[in-house]
TrEMBL record:
Residues 201-212 have a biased composition (Basic residues). Residues 61-84, 201-246 are annotated as: Disordered. This is TPGS2 polyglutamylase. The lineage of its organism: Eukaryota, Metazoa, Chordata, Craniata, Vertebrata. Residues 66-75 have a biased composition (Acidic residues). It comes from Spizaetus tyrannus. Residues 219-233 have a biased composition (Low complexity). Transmembrane segments: none annotated. It comes from the Eukaryota.
Length: 246
């Protein structure tokens, strides 16, 4: 009612469920937790409008509308029209991005009445606009998908994320930060495992029992001579016993 505009249906349903959202997560370095990820959706009370007040408290201080430059619209081609800080647009802050910029809910058509169509844009620290999504639901999915990593919104700008943030992306979201490489080399992230080699049946070789080595001929002859002498001696003894009995 204050700004004479209606919230988009998906954002209104979100605020009916919860008045804002904030989730942070940390990593441990040398057993010391360090804050890293941050996912924020401002509450209704913090859904402040941008461009309506002066940047300074001095009289006749410049406003964001004074920084409007229509030359930025030239040569955009098929790109969506950028928001304006003056009365042509209504801009509300959804996420302060820890000082790295602002994610904004933008009403781009306000005359003669405010259009219910909204878009989500990212305003960087140099006050340049970068389009993110057409709906809040799509932006919310992006927020969750990028895990709230530092400066993740800059992945949708022409100059990308900083080298420090890129290290975190390589650790937690490597495919997201290497989208150009993924499009150029389709097989770069494909598992090249050959199932025929992994699941190849292994035929067990039968275990052949070794036969004891054959004895040499000389030893066999001596063994035979010994057994024959034993049998002859046994025969002589038995004949002697029979003689003594008779």
């Amino acid at each position: 009612q204050k700004n004479s505009c209606m919230l988009p249906e998906d954002l209104k349903n979100f605020y009916l469920m919860t008045d804002g959202f904030q989730m942070t997560w940390s990593v441990k370095t040398d057993d010391t937790p360090m804050p890293l990820g941050s996912m924020v959706i401002n509450s209704v009370s913090k859904l402040c409008r941008l461009g309506g007040s002066s940047m300074y408290t001095l009289p006749n201080a410049p406003t964001l509308a004074d920084l409007e430059d229509d030359t930025d619209e030239e040569g955009n081609g098929d790109k969506p029209e950028k928001p304006h800080f003056d009365s042509r647009s209504l801009i509300f802050e959804l996420d302060p991005c820890n000082g790295n910029g602002k994610v904004c809910l933008v009403y781009k058509h306000t005359k003669p009445v405010v259009s219910p169509d909204t878009e989500i844009w990212f305003l960087d620290r140099a006050l340049y606009w970068h389009f993110l999504t057409k709906t809040f639901t799509a932006y919310y999915r992006l927020l969750i998908t990028h895990l709230g990593l530092p400066q993740w919104q800059y992945a949708f700008t022409s100059y990308g994320v900083s080298p420090q943030a890129k290290q975190w992306f390589n650790m937690y979201k490597p495919i997201t930060i290497n989208t150009a490489l993924l499009s150029e080399e389709a097989d770069s992230f494909v598992n090249k495992l050959d199932p025929n080699k992994v699941f190849k049946s292994k035929n067990k070789t039968p275990v052949i029992k070794k036969k004891p080595p054959s004895q040499p001929a000389g030893s066999q002859k001596s063994h035979m001579s010994m057994t024959s002498s034993k049998t002859s001696s046994l025969a002589g003894n038995s004949s002697r016993k029979r003689d003594s009995q008779i």
